[in-house]
Design brief:
Length: 181
């Protein structure tokens, strides 16, 4: 199983690389990796398992965070209506987004960042994301609220972007300018 010792910390170049598209249908190996990523995210939210293995709770994980530069993310999050979004996704892509922005009141954190970085991380309020699920289904989902923010955070990892790159006025050793589109 994946534990914190598998999680790559900031400063490692893999977190700054553009992850590669996963050829579809995914190989058995890629599928297994993504299954393990989702298992990690779920485990991290289980107080007993998290305590036993020293996991930091997380609501998402991107493959580059375990040193695999491929476009795969896992998300396990309850939205504001308590609906659960729990999925592994290959090649997630934001195909449209709102003009309106949103942010988490208490900022964001990252399993690859072992410190608090306070500040507002501007995100789109709503996104439409397209991708292929762990089950092999090609899906197009309209997301809002926390779920939308997690997907944006994870897809940023696939593009080598850290959450603090988006914090205006934050300056730190690892901060980078946002890439131009
Ligand atoms: C706050 C936390 C996360 C996403 C959005 C807001 C996830 C934290 C875990 N990760 O580092 C996943 O990349
Ligand atoms: Ni992160």
């Amino acid at each position: 199983m994946i534990t914190m010792k598998d999680v790559i910390r900031e400063g490692h170049p893999v977190l700054r690389q553009i992850a590669k598209e996963v050829p579809l249908p995914p190989s058995e190996e890629d599928k297994q990796t993504l299954e393990k990523m989702l298992e990690f995210v779920i485990n991290s939210q289980n107080p007993e398992i998290a305590e036993q293995y020293g996991l930091r709770p997380g609501i998402g994980l991107a493959a580059p965070q375990i040193g695999i530069s491929k476009r795969m993310i896992a998300v396990h999050v309850y939205d504001e209506n308590d609906n659960l979004v729990s999925c592994g996704m290959f090649n997630p892509k934001i195909i449209s987004h709102s003009v309106e922005l949103n942010h988490l009141e208490n900022g964001e954190g990252c399993l690859s960042v072992d410190r608090d970085v306070p500040g507002i991380v501007p995100r789109y309020s709503r996104i439409t994301v397209k991708g292929t699920t762990l089950e092999g289904e090609e899906v197009t989902w309209r997301l809002k609220g926390l779920t939308s923010i997690v997907f944006q955070h994870e897809i940023d990892h696939l593009n080598g972007i850290m959450f603090y790159d988006r914090i205006e006025g934050y300056e730190g050793k690892f901060k980078r300018a946002l890439p131009k589109l």
